[in-house]
Amino acid sequence: MSITLTIDGKKIIAQEGMSILNAASENGIKIPNLCYDGRVELYGACGLCTVEVEGNPKLLRACSTKAADGMVVHTQTERVKSSRKVALELLLSDHTGDCVAPCSKACPAGTDCQGYVGLIANGEYTEAVKLIKDKLPLPASIGRICPHPCEKACRRQYVDEPISIAFLKSFVSDTDLSENTYIPETEPDTNKKVAVIGGGPAGLTAAYFLRKNGHSVTVFEQMEKMGGMLRYGIPEYRLPKAVLDKEIKLIEDMGVTLKNNVNIGKDISFEQIQKDFDATLVAIGAWNSSKMRVPGEDLDGVWGGIDLLREVALGNKVNLGKNVAVCGGGNTAMDACRTAVRLGAENVYVIYRRTKDEMPADPQEILESEEEGVVYKYLTNPIEFTGENGKLNGVILQKMELGEPDESGRRRPVAIEGETEEIALDSVIMAIGQYPNLSGFEALEATRKNTISADESRFTTSLQGVFAVGDATNKGADIAIAAIGEAQKVSVVIDRYLNGETVGYKKPYFVERESKDIDYSKFSKLPRAKMPHMTPTDRKNNFKEVNFGFSEEQAKKEAMRCLECGCHDYFECKLISYANDYDVNPSRFDGEKHNRNQENANDLIARNTDKCILCGLCVRVCEEVMGKSAIGLINRGFNTLVEPELSKPLKETDCIACGQCVALCPTGALREKTAFSKNVPVKEKSQMSICTNCSNLCDIDYRYIGSTVTRALPVNNGILCKGGRFGVLNDKAQNQIDDLSALVNTDFAIVVGGRVSAEALFVLKKFSEENNASIYTVANETDANYYAISKLGIKEYNTLPQNIKSVLLVNAQIETNANKYVAALSPYCENGTFFDKYGNKKTQKAIFTKETFAEVINKKLKNSYDDITCEAEKEINAVSTGKVTNEEIIKSSSLF
Amino acid sequence: MKIAVGQGSCGIAAGAMKAYEVLSSNLDFSDNQLTVTGCIGMCYLEPIVDVYADDGLHRFVKVNGEIAEKIANAVNENNLISVKEYEISDDDKQFLDKQTRIALRHCGIINPEIIEDYTDGDGYKALEKVLTTMSAEDVIEEIKVSGLAGRGGAGFPTWFKWNAARQSQGEKKYLICNADEGDPGAFMDRAVIEGDPHNLIEGMLIGAYAIGAGEAIVYVRAEYPLAIRRLQNAIEQAKAKGFIGQNIMGTSFSCDFRIKAGAGAFVCGEETALIESLEGSRGMPRLKPPFPAQSGYWRKPSNINNVETFANVSWIILNGGSAFSSMGTENSKGTKVFALTGKIKRGGLVEIPMGKTLRDVIFDIGGGIKNNKNFKAVQMGGPSGGCIPKELLDTVIDYKALSQTGAIMGSGGMVVMDDSTCMVEMARFFLDFTAKESCGKCVHCRLGTKRMLEILTRITEGNGKEEDIELLEELCLAIKDGALCGLGQTAPNPVLTTLKYFKNEYVEHITEKKCEAHECTNLLRYEINADACKGCTLCAKKCPVGAINGTVKNPHSIDMEKCIKCGNCINVCKFNAVEVK
């Protein structure tokens, strides 16, 4: 009987006996829940599905409250929301782990470092580049020059040394640039026009993301080429401009209009741009060198750091003379001193008022400059530049010592009264900072530091429709990746603005833990990959790139060192998704937190009880659906815990490895091992298929990334046996590409067994057709996949044609049940062209596919499989109508 | 003469076995008979020996071996006047005289181990009346007339539950008695089972008849070994007499009866968790609905009542529902048993008609506060209940009136507190209990009580924060709203009521780092009043950590860095020079 009720003001027809939760969900009203699943008995643990029902003073659980005729339900009242929020905060107050790895969080652009490092480890380079380019369009350039805050945050440093994240990024981006370069797809054109002023890292990044969203983007750049400080502030030996050019070209190829040599205020007015475009982004950088305000700074021979670098980048002749000093301790100082060496200076000094320990420059840069002969004058400060006839001839240095720490925590340099030193100089380079040149942008409100004043989260300026990011704004100059991060965020803001919305960037909530709370003793030490580079003698007199880049082998090995800090379930975790929906602040409930630190895993399933929210789904599905009791609850109250029976390893319980517990776990407490050699949390793609481990032909959801099938999941609350669920782990070899060319060059035939997957059969059939080879089967009607074999018209093996030189045997079960064929085929085995499913003792691996199952199906199989799908559905219907029980399916799988 | 020794758990703990032994070896049995009885309720006077002489009952209290011997001799010589001094005082007699006993009517009077003691009176007459003259509907109607409500705490009308289970479809039905008495300070059920097990059995059989159950089960915590032994003994005797089993009293009514000993998890007092435990699963509550009346033990219609509820049933059948409902108030009928404990002069079991005031119980019956200190509050209903302050002492005992104070009737635990009790510490104590006893199933209870406990702990340790009170209030309301079962939903009550009536104590702890009741040791400061100190050095000698400095005949001082607040110095100082602040 149907009933009518109102949920959130919407009239809804439901069946009598239905819960409010189901009635709402059938009508597209989402009520959050963490412990509900239709197949197991109601539990009511999570307390998230609470709703208010008019006439009832209590909050009711939507999962257990039956919908009734005339009922008026509210799912979004303040009381409901605050109750859900408290429940989430309580759960999160005892949820130990890291949603996202510290490296990613440290990156101002939020690049998924763990993700791409992991993909590199697995050889999935294109996927790695796609992942990087989700956040950052210039990875080959940035990978070379970024001061990598990610590596400073990397927890591997507590074991030995951090992962070489930045160089891995340039490795994989270089690989991508060399062939089949990835260009993201752009959304359909929106006919909205955006002007980006400034073609540096920020401007190019914003242009890339806005173009991706389908907007028409024009970048205005005052210099003759795009790239900004990457081109004019970073020396060639660190970032070859050919690399930068390639990356900029990709952005242009996406359809971004690049206009060089445009000086705002002269060639076109700022007002005009605002009129011509729907939105304007100002990303003009900081192009003026800061002054020290020391006597003699205006002498000839005194350079600004970035001014020098720009002159060199422009290819202008620069003569610094023999004796050169650089003032400053940052990366610009490093670039300046090493450039001076390359310009032929004989004595190059770096003048820095603190010591090496306080120097902000990358230690590697300091080391390499020392190798190139740069002399460091620590604890000195210029008090006067001396000169004759307006030309610099030396500097007077005040000697310093370190005093009390200042607000930055670094010890403050204090002058030692009366102690000075003089050095004879031809040039001095002031690399102590930079600030923007705002001429032409007077219409924008400026800060007291003479930078553009922009909102911290919305990047709006004093002018409607004008946004600003990067070095020109607020705090002033920062590293490139910081500008890129802002550009990426402002792209979202501008995109929304163009749709008439005003939404600022909001930092998402993550669960995180202290690095010190982790037990690192379980990791064995592995040294960090050394970047191969030119010797000092080879490099000091030219601007060739110093680093050679990682080899593939080096890169993979380095990437394998990753500790996998970020949660592997981040992209599927319901808890973190709700946490952000409800804007939680669990810190107010800070208290004791479990940190059991137990990595409880077997070959197939990994358990992490610190992430368990005790929804009980795993325990219930095991008992109620599978009829097993492999896991259960122990202890009480705060210390309640899900444990395998009698706290034994899962393997020793009556676990049948169906993986249902994992499929239902809403958090990262339970997860399946993937077919990757390095587990990595990334969004997988999904391909529906049919499991062909046995004749039940269960629906199966293959998850894959690039060319790797990572996991196989049951579909629509179905059940897979161990073979279907975890077969991808055993059959890793199947999923990888192998070369069958040796075979193709001979006259050959294919013989398949009865337990080859339908996908593989199809590929083999196709392969045989493409190569004019015969394909036979030794399967008989009792074999698991005989149906698919006959459907594909593969003939039964009788005798082989005379001309055959080799045979590709695919899982023909010769070891066990096809003895009669062994004799007939044995001559071919001896010929060394014998293959089997696993490719063990044979000369070559026999691998089915040129591509993965998933992609093959995607591209080629769709039509061919319609028939089989129908038949499989019949089988599956038999299960649901009770003709075949789940238990029987599991028993029927020969993998048990 | 008949001589009865009270051998409830309380009596035994106080030394009743010794008294029994001495009596048994000294009494002249030619003319005397020594027997055992349950707890009369005056636990504070145990061991109690009752001598039924020709001139009536002589009740001897606090009977140790020596007194027992004197009593034996006096009995042998028929000279009870010689031991008059050991008899109960007139003052103490008030304790019983002011009560009205229905559920406890046989406790402390009959021998619980001999069925004839029960049947010699009106025992099993109610069952006989029901089976021979009443239909199930008649029984339910009689209970309805009586107004009997669940004595386990929730106060749900008993007839309604019985009727729901009766109406529920199903051939197999179960009647279950909840004897999982777990509130700290509550021992009503234990006393009934130990003192009058047949009354419980009879009440349950009547209930089973009313709902149509063929099996009755008593779920009793294993920590009550004496109760289990006496109940088991009673079941066997009742079976032998044909009161349990097939065709009871020759009628078509059949009912099996058994005991299930629970492992002592507090949450198993919650009816659905109790059912889970009965089925052999982990004791965790189920979602309601469905209610046990529809789907209970093994998913069959089941009815669960508390011990005390059943203990009233036979009386109601024999005396009529209206006799029961003539006692009490408009909302609450009959009598209620309370376990009176804490800082009370006369602690024990009290059964009074509904409608009496708390003052009646605590002062008239209980005799007021021990050591003549001031009454501060009474905690009703244990960890699920709340405290009631002295301003509300005239609140009548009535389900509605009590819940209006923020406390509950509860199962009958009544813990009396004087002004040496810190109310924050008291709330912390109960939260510690519920947090540990939470089954861990629902988020609000598992983590909410844990976080509340942490906040309360930091307040009592002097680390409370300004925002803690607000945070506590928020958590209290969220847990009440969100917890799955009664345990969680009521867990905030001690905090809510102490916040309602004693908020100043929370504020003092947090802002002034002061505990008025001197119970939170972390907040105490020990100081020596230099004017009063004579420099006797005694305190310095007794200080276990050497925290007291000073020379002979000069005032001493305490180093608070070292002081562990053990209180030795206060106890030894003869000049009251040590002060606690």
Helix and strand topology:
The complex is a heterodimer of chains A (896) and B (581).
Chain A: E1 2-7, E2 10-15, H1 20-26, E3 50-53, E4 59-61, E5 72-74, H2 78-92, H3 102-106, H4 113-121, H5 125-133, H6 139-145, H7 149-153, H8 165-178, E6 193-197, H9 201-212, E7 216-220, H10 229-232, H11 241-253, E8 257-259, H12 270-276, E9 279-282, E10 288-289, E11 302-304, H13 305-313, E12 323-327, H14 331-342, E13 347-352, H15 363-371, E14 375-378, E15 380-388, E16 391-405, E17 411-424, E18 427-430, E19 434-435, E20 466-468, H16 480-498, H17 536-539, H18 552-560, H19 574-581, E21 600-601, E22 605-607, H20 617-625, E23 631-634, E24 641-644, H21 660-664, E25 670-672, E26 685-690, E27 699-705, E28 708-714, H22 722-730, H23 732-735, H24 741-744, E29 748-752, H25 758-770, E30 774-777, H26 786-791, E31 795-796, E32 806-810, H27 819-830, H28 853-861, H29 866-880, H30 886-892
Parallel strand pairs in A: 1-5, 6-7, 6-9, 7-8, 9-20, 11-18, 12-13, 12-18, 13-14, 29-30, 29-32, 30-31
Antiparallel strand pairs in A: 1-2, 3-4, 3-5, 10-19, 15-16, 16-17, 21-22, 22-25, 23-24, 26-27, 27-28
Chain B: E1 2-6, H1 9-14, H2 16-26, E2 33-37, E3 49-53, E4 56-60, H3 65-76, H4 90-97, H5 115-119, H6 125-133, H7 136-146, H8 158-167, E5 174-179, H9 188-195, H10 197-211, E6 215-221, H11 225-240, E7 256-262, H12 271-278, E8 302-306, H13 307-319, H14 321-325, E9 335-342, E10 348-353, H15 358-365, E11 375-380, E12 386-389, H16 399-404, E13 413-418, H17 423-437, H18 443-460, H19 468-482, H20 486-490, H21 493-501, H22 503-512, E14 526-528, H23 538-542, E15 548-549, E16 557-558, H24 568-572, E17 578-580
Parallel strand pairs in B: 1-2, 5-6, 5-8, 6-7, 9-13
Antiparallel strand pairs in B: 1-3, 3-4, 9-10, 11-12, 11-13, 14-17, 15-16
